[in-house]
Amino acid sequence: MTVTVPPQAKRVKYVYIPADVHEPIQEREIDVPEGREVECLLDCLKDHFKAAGGNKTAAQREAQKQQLIARVGAESAAKLSDQMMAVALDMQMVETVPLLVNNRDNGYVGVNMYCDDQAQVKELPLNMRASNIADCCGKPMQVNGDVFLARLFDNDDAFVRLDLGLPEVTSSAAWVAAAAAQAARRMQQGDRAADFMAQLQQQQRKQGQASAAPAATVRELTPAEVEKEAGNAAVKRGDWSGAVDRYSAALGLEPGMTAAANNRALALLRLGRHGEAEADCGKVLEAEPRNVKALLRRATCRVALGRRAEAVADLQAVLELEPHNKDAQAELTKLAPPPPPPVPAEAGAVAL
C-alpha cells in the first residue's frame, strides 16, 4: 500500500469542547511552525488546562503527590528534593486519547482527544458532550474538564497536522464511524482489556432489539439536565444544601422537570424543610400521580408536619400501586393507631 504524506498547512483547525454545556462547542485555529508540528498544539493546550483548572488545593496537591509516589515508587520519590517534587506537582501535561487510531488501514490519519492529565486530581466537572463523543467512537469513558479534538497524519516517519472542523463533531461524521468500526474490530480480535466496556455497552444496546442496534448519536445534555446531574452528584456527597441549589437551578431553566423536583424534595427533607419538600412532591404528583417516590416523600413530610391522616392516605396509595412495598408497609405500621384502652367495669358489676 502506497501512503501519500499530505502537505503541512501553515494553519489548521481543531475543536474545543468545554465542560460547561452553557458554553458552545467551538472551532479554533492554530499556526503550525515548521519543526514544531507536534508541540505547537500541545503547548497551547497546556496553557489552557493550567489556566482553566485553577489552583489546586493543599488536599489535591497531596493526592497528586501520592499518585506520583505510587507511579515512580517510594524509593525513587524519596530521592527527589522538595524543589523537584514541587516542580513535578506544578507540571501541566496533556493526556492524549486516540479516538480514531492512525493505522495503515485508514492511511495513518487519526483523530485524538486531548484532556487535562490532572482532571481527576483537580476534581474537574464531567464533560458530558466529550464523553458522548468518545462513546460513539467505541471508547466509553468518563471525560472530565475541557477537551479538544484534532486530526493528524502520523506514519512514524512523518507527522502532519490536518484540519478538523466543527461540522465534523457529530455522530454521523465519517471519522466517528471509522473509529467505531476500529473498536468493533479490536473486540473481534480479542482486545478485551481495551474494549471490554465498549463491548458490554454494545450488548446492552442490543437487548430487546430484533434488528441491528441503531447508530449511536451524540446527545448533548440541556443546561437544565446538567444542573440536575450536578444536584445528583451533590446528593451522593451528602451536600444537601448544594443539591437544593442545583436542583433549583434546573427547575429555573425547566420548571416541568419532575425528576429535579422529586430529588429536591429529598434534599429538602434531609434539611428539615418539610413544607417546601411537601410542595415539591405535590408538583411531581400533579404531573405523575403514580410516582411512588413522591408519595413516600410526601408522607414523610406530612408526618413531620403533624398531618397523620394525610400521610396514611399517601402510604395507602403507594400500596395500591405496589402492594408489597416494604417502606410503605413499615411506615403504616408505625402510624397505626394504638389499641383502645380497656373499658373499666361499671360500678357494682362483678367481673366473671
Question: What is the structure about, briefly put?
Answer:
This protein has helices at residues 39-52, 58-72, 74-78, 82-90, 128-136, 174-188, 192-206, 223-237, 240-253, 258-270, 274-287, 292-304, 308-321, 326-335, and strands at 11-17, 26-31, 94-100, 109-116, 147-154, 159-162.
Task: Describe this protein's structure.
By secondary structure, the chain is of the alpha+beta class. It has two domains: 11-201, no CATH class; 223-335, Tetratricopeptide repeat domain (Serine Threonine Protein Phosphatase 5, Tetratricopeptide repeat), CATH 1.25.40. It contains 14 helices and six strands. Strands 1, 2, 3, 4, 5 and 6 form a six-stranded antiparallel sheet that branches. Helix 8 (223-237) packs antiparallel against helix 9 (240-253) and helix 12 packs antiparallel against helix 13 (308-321). It is elongated, with a radius of gyration of 29 Å.
